[in-house]
Amino acid sequence: MTLLEFRDLHVTYTGSRGRLPAVRGVDLTVDAGETLGIAGESGCGKSTLAMAVLRLLPKSAEVSGRILLDGEDLLAMGWGRLRAVRWTGASIVFQGAMHSLNAVQRIGRQVAEPLLVHERTTPAKAARRAEELLERVGLPPSRARSYPHELSGGQRQRVMIAMALACDPGLIIADEATTALDVMVQAQVLQLISGLVAEKGVGLVMISHDLSVLSAVCDRAAVMYAGRIVEQGPAREVFANARHPYSAALGAAFPAIGDLAARKRPGGLAGDPPDPSRLPRGCAFAPRCAVAVERCVDESPELLPVPTGGSAADPVRTSACFVAQEGEPVVAQR
Ligand code: ADP
Ligand code: MG
Questions:
Q1: Ligand 1 pocket: which of 6, 12, 20 to mutate (most atoms <8 Å of CB)?
Q2: How many domains does one find in the chain?
Q3: Of 211, 262, 213, the residue nearest 238 (C-alpha)
Q4: Residue 138's pLDDT is what?
Q5: From residue 33, how far is each of 55, 102, 250 by CA, in Å?
Q6: Alpha-carbon distance 240 to 25, whole Å?
Q7: Inter-residue contact 308 to 328 (CB < 8 Å)
Q8: Residue 108 located in a structural domain
Q9: Residue list, ligand 1 pocket, CB within 6 Å
Q10: pLDDT tens-digit profile of 84-138?
Q11: Most buried one in 24, 100, 112, 246, CB count within 10 A?
């Protein structure tokens, strides 16, 4: 069953640099109980997409298209309904969210807060539930009496996850939620999140610049570049057998979780994503692409099913690359 659906979503910021098309026509679905990973370097529009779901974008952002949650149009929703949806329908754990905890309030109180506000429960019940939630994320319930500074970074991130889980949302969006943590803690927190998703049957959108992290945790992966989805498919396949040269380069830059040596010498990905206010005319990746052909400079490829081994296109693998669509290798042959 489809839980979340983006239909031709566009987000354009307007500012001193003029118009910035940060998200340019995204179509994407997430089923209930499914884990979707969204990968891409910094600046590719991942957080903009995430914030659009809960309408957390600044006023300067112009949004068009549709975002449906359980069939309900989030962009057309009134504020009252939206406030309810923000806790019980979908919740977001942001990058560095652990720094947004209130320094002078005990952890238990902060976890209980959404329950008091949104479920009109009694303070005693909310406090008990907060302790249960802390246990669920692997923290001793006694931590409810601690202040944020008494916790490690990994523990604070677990608290954020407990808060996101508080009102039993049907959808959780984790935007670089583990990026600030060290590799071992990152693996633990990711395991925790995917365990909770499996147990509860909620939908999870996990956003990371690191494709290897997503391939370990997610069912499906979508790779984003310059505001568009450029490849989509089973997460492990997208990582191990990329059908877009950008996914291949991203996978090569972060080959394996915990591979510290590789992190220090990211391979195969020189340069930066384009500035959204100055996008290339054809394929946005063409200037950095090792396999680009003439056509890539002039025309912008659509996201279409591509062959993955033989010559027939695989309906579950889509790529916005002319080379992949012809069934050709997307990595330069030596
Ligand atoms: P990612 O999460 O993939 O790093 P973002 O969604 O944060 O990407 O950013 C996409 C593009 O939008 C970037 O070029 C960024 O500079 C721009 N951008 C993000 N937020 C704003 C904002 N509030 N105002 C103007 N431009 C923004
Ligand atoms: Mg981001």
A1: 20
A2: 2
A3: 211
A4: 86
A5: 23, 32, 27
A6: 26
A7: no
A8: yes
A9: 13, 15, 20, 22, 40, 42-48, 58, 60, 276
A10: 888 788 988 887 666 789 999 999 999 999 888 877 889 999 999 999 999 988 8
A11: 246
Q: Rounded to an integer, what distance in angstroms lies between the CA atom of residue 265 and that of residue 205?
A: 28
**Token representation of residue 99:** 């720094």
The atom of ligand 1 lying closest to the CA of 15 is 25
**Counting ligands in written order, which one lies closest to the CA of residue 13?**
1
165-177 residue pLDDT tens: 888 889 999 998 8
Q: Which ligand is nearest to the CA of 42?
A: 1
The protein residue whose alpha carbon is closest to atom 13 in ligand 1 is 43
Residue 203 belongs to a domain: no
- The pick from 48, 54, 228 for probing ligand 1's pocket by mutation, whose C-beta has the most ligand atoms within 8 angstroms, reads 48
215 found inside a domain: no
Residue 176 Cα, ligand 2 centroid: separation in angstroms?
A: 7
Domain that includes residue 320, residue range: 244-325
Cα 294 to ligand 1 centre (Å): 30
Within a domain: residue 35? no
Q: For residue range 228-273, list pLDDT tens digits in order.
A: 999 999 999 999 999 999 999 998 887 665 555 544 444 557 888 9
Which pLDDT score, from 0 to 100, does residue 265 have? 47
Which numbered ligand comes closest to the C-alpha of 26?
1
Lowest-confidence region among 182-191, 222-231, 260-269, 279-288: 260-269
CA of 254 to the centre of ligand 2 (A): 17
